[in-house]
Write a structure and sequence with these properties.
With 356 residues, the chain is of the alpha/beta class. The protein has 12 helices and 14 strands.
Amino acid sequence: MDCMKENRQEKMAGRANITIKTVAKELGLSFSTVSKALNDNPMIKDSTKQLVRAKCSELGYTPNAMARKLRQNANKNIAVIFNDLQNPILTKIFDDIAIQMQPDYSIVICDSQFDSKMEKAHIQTTLENRSDIILLEPTIIDDPNLKLLQHSCDRLILFGAPNNEICCNGIRIDYELGGYLSTLEMLENKHTDNAVFCVSRNFPSAAAFLNGIRKAYSEFGLTFNEERIFDVDSTEKAAFRQASALMQDKDAMPTGYITFCDVYAAGIYKAAARNDIRIPDDISVMGHDNYPLSDLVYPALTTINIPSDRIAESCVRLIKNILNGAESTICYSFEPTLIRRNSVSMNKRTKEGIQI
């Protein structure tokens, strides 16, 4: 009798030592996948859930009731921390994530407005809320706020220019190539005096964009005038004000306008119309991001296409991979392409009878 009692106690003690890690090891699955399967996560296949439950039954594992309750009360949200929520590329990403992930997950969207302190507050709130996924577009180069996320790499997706500070999943866009292609088009059309409308040059994507501009000038044996860089709020109104100021002296104004987004180009178009300046006869304008209405303005805007559909699809794919317990780190890279329309033409302005 005592022997039977001891065997029963040993068996119960053995079962008490069974954890999710034990189940995961037995099945050759990740801890995350087993945990999600036990919580009936919709991103886990039904066959995997059945396999996990069967193994739990075999091993005698019973999830801790209190821990289960805490998990069930989790927010189940996806946090998106970006800098310019009016950007059409970002809008496309938000739409795709919402369509694919709701109603199982809520989408929390935060706008850092290129402000590092605001970004830090958003990150801290996101960590406190235990968001399942954090999709972040850093505000500055060598962003110190990334240190806050060093223990959350398994659920972090970095967006924008390449970043080597932290190892995590990522969406990388070659903004340097975008700046290079924009400038190359201008220089090939004899526009050497170009104004550049850009967000804060400390913003990683903007910094890469400017590096591309400098690279194109260097290849032409020219030095880019850094004073022609204008930090402009990412609104049509701000671009209109800056362009209008430059157009007051028509003899000294730039002949080319290179922009970080098509919204800036819209402001330049408006300023040109107000100042009786013709595009592309008097000035040439280059957009960037290929806003859906860019080919409907007159003249149709020459711009740089950022493949927003493919980027959005890749964001959703990464989110699903993480929620499915994938342990590998994936970075998707995208290259912009030039779309020639009608807003850039050969520079006709002359100085002392010589074309410049």
